[in-house]
Amino acid sequence: MSLLHLSINADAPQEVATFLAQVMGGVALPFPPFPDCWIAFAKQDDGTAIEVYPTTHVLEAGAEQISCEIKTRDAGSTFVHAALCATLDRSEIISLAAERDWIARICNRGPFECVEVWLENRLLVELLDREMQKDYRRGMTAENWAAMFGLIR
Q1: Which carries the bigger pLDDT value, residue 118 or residue 148?
Q2: How many CB atoms lie within 10 A of CB 2?
Q3: Measured distance CA(142)–CA(148) in Å, rounded
Q4: Residue 35 CA: distances (Å) to CA of 12, 27, 54, 70, 73
Q5: Among 25, 64, 73, 130, which lies 20 to 30 A Cα-Cα from 139?
Q6: How close are the terminal C-alpha atoms of the chain, in Å?
């Protein structure tokens, strides 16, 4: 299984989509199915994307399919986050985040390092440059996880 796309929300969807497209080496475009939304496509242009909705928009189960409703702004913290492959190196990622005054730092997650970026200082994305991606793929296996935490497998 591979993640094909992800949806998040932001106060400034165009800015967040543009940042994500930059670190994925792709392009940000408007997302016409819903008002004021943007989508960031990855460099490989294979459908890998992140949709960015305003914090006032929510997705609901409509009568026949998904419905985008405008409601009260949701700016609270969330446990939801994503780890993404970046085409930029760690220093470039940190510089792009710094231009926006977003928290960005290199963190050790045990089996891998990442650049922890807080989009709009409220939503976490873990961005991995090429070296970090190698460590992630080497270390983040079910077998290694079980061994690291003494789990029976």
Answers
A1: 118
A2: 6
A3: 10
A4: 13, 19, 9, 9, 15
A5: 25
A6: 21
74 is written with which tokens?
């949701």
pLDDT at 104: 98
Chain segment 118-136, per-residue pLDDT in tens = 999 999 999 999 999 999 9
- How far CA 143 is from CA of 2, 39, 49, 140, in Å, comes to 19, 35, 29, 8
User: Could you give the CA distance from residue 19 to residue 13 in angstroms, rounded to a whole number?
Assistant: 10
* Averaged confidence pLDDT in the chain: 91
DSSP reduced 3-state for 120: coil
| 32: CB partners within 8 A, 6+ apart | none
Among 12, 51, 46, CA closest to 29: 51
Paired tokens of 105? 């730092």
Q: Between the CA of residue 122 and those of 29, 61, 109, 125, 144, what are the distances in Å?
A: 22, 26, 19, 10, 31
